[in-house]
Amino acid sequence: MPQPLQLRFVKSADDLSALPPSPAEVAVVGRSNVGKSSLLNALARRNKLAHVSKTPGRTQLLNLFELPDGTTVVDCPGYGYAAVSKSMRAGWQQMIEGYLTGREELVKILVLVDGEVGPTKLDVQLLEWLRAEDLPYAVIATKHDKVKSSLREKRKKDLAAGCGLDKGEVIWVSAAKNVGVDRLADQIRNWLAE
Length: 194
Description:
Blueprint: E1 8-13, E2 25-30, H1 36-44, E3 62-66, E4 72-75, H2 86-102, E5 106-114, H3 121-132, E6 137-142, H4 152-162, E7 170-172, H5 181-193
Parallel strand pairs: 2-4, 2-5, 5-6, 6-7
Antiparallel strand pairs: 1-3, 3-4
């Protein structure tokens, strides 16, 4: 049976400098409400590891989780919708960009895109920025279960094209139905071990 990621919550930080060193790290980024916390819980097979909220924009800090080998996963604040002030949103953006460009331990940035909605303007902007900064990323399409099976093939092609990728380069998952979660967990382990 595939092993879940044995993630343990370590700390929340409001700045890159507050994070402890790590042998290797994977970051999880995406729009508010894309299902970051649900996916982290599914990867660890634990319901209460990351706080899942009905209100988008609840993750406001860099949340650091550690695996038994000392490698780490960071859950970043969601971008896009959040009922907070513009100045606070701008502060988050600075914090996230500073973290993504300044964290030497970072081996992969998981960009979560809502499989039901497809890439939004903000998702596309983020991907363009990551390419411009030459940062290593992978696109993970969430909510596989919400896409009607008759539309899945077309959606997979359209979503990949919208992200500027080939269909095979996008990993599809459903935290609710556990689709692709074990495959992603293995992939994360591989990235952290490289």
